[in-house]
Amino acid sequence: MTLPALPTDLVTPHALPTATDPTAAIAELAGRFLTPNYRNANVVFTHGEGPWNIDVAGRRYLDFSSGVAVNLLGHAHPDLVAALQDQVGKIIHQSNYWHNLHAAPLARDLCEQFAAATAAATGTPWPARVFFCNSGAEAIEALVKLARRWHAKVLGRPRPGIVTMEGSFHGRTYAAMTATAQPKYQAGFEPLVPGFCHVPFGDLAALAAACTDETGAVLIEIVQGEGGVNLPPAGWLRAVRDLCDARGMLLLLDEVQTGLGRTGTFFAFEQEHCAPDALALAKGLGGGVPVGAIVARDAVAHALQPGSHATTFGANALAMRAGRVVLEVLARDRVLDNARDVGAYLLERLHAAFDAQPYTIDVRGRGLMVGVQVRGDPKRVVDAARDRGLLLSVAGADVLRLTPPLLVDRGHCDLAVERLRAAADEVLLPVASAISA
Ligand SMILES: Cc1ncc(COP(=O)(O)O)c(C=O)c1O
After folding, report:
1. What tens digit of pLDDT does each residue of 31-89 get?
2. Which one of 82, 288, 364, 406 counts the least CB within 10 Å of its CB?
3. Which atom of ligand 1 is nearest to the CA of 283?
């Protein structure tokens, strides 16, 4: 097959931007040289301060997206800045053939959190181990590989089947994308990874019916983030745990977005009164530095023997130092208390501002993971909010998602709600009025 010739401007290696405005110049370069898979808005950020982002023109934006639920400590947190500056001057990377000063202590701290949370849920602290990687999708890949290898090599009978929930989002690599039960993320990438099936979120009977002798694990995102800030029915996860125990399946949790205090407790599963066999973390773990991890019950973790799984950058000194600072600050500054308190306040303020609006379908959330479901195009509201100096993101088809840094205060929430309401009124009220007229 002969490929069509590329336009010459696409093959010019050192094309310089022709625009003089810095935002337009960067947008022009991006348009030429980055793969066109992102719909970037034309805003170029140069730096941040706490919950604020500042663009090249000096405009300030209140960041209630946090880089999609990543920057738990906001931008340029002094402890993170100091530690990373120090670490960069010492050592950034070595391979996993050797130890560094930070991976094992960070693993210990995560295991202590896991032990405390499982003890609260079951009465016994479950010992665990950690594998570090670089992103959420990679952590999900590791969970899938762990589950399959546990059945095949440790228990001696392959049970490759994995059931996931409709509306979930687990990432863009192959197993993570296949686990993601939303066809729009899979279109054109077939064939997908065999062995996955999907059932409606929160439907215990459908899950029980879908599980066969070949099913080795159930994978759940407790509060579906990308899917639309969807909360699980009360008691459902606990019942899933019982089903897994009865059928010898592993319960795997995707806490990539919900973990590290986002929903008001260190792990979201703490609010469900049951415990998983393994879970995935990423997003907030490095405070903006790419870090992913799985935390797995000790016995299950032994499925990953030398040579079975690895990643070059995983557990590197810089990433691990970042993770340690994040955990230290969360504990020292009682950040989870703030996330619970301010999260409840934000939800209350959103109810007050949006419940009576004709375009509002629902306001819901847990901790500082909150959504406003609307009739109309949420992307246009996000754009209008950005023009008013507020950053947030869209989740699902119709949800405005707020995931601010966990250190925001009530004043930040008041300002965010005021700006969001103004943006939503501008975009959605005319449509709602036209429909009701
Ligand atoms: C719940 C969940 N799991 C997995 C992922 C994938 O993480 P990453 O984009 O770091 O690969 C995401 C990303 O949004 C997520 O929200």
Report:
1. 999 999 999 899 999 999 999 999 999 999 999 999 999 999 999 999 999 999 999 99
2. 82
3. 10
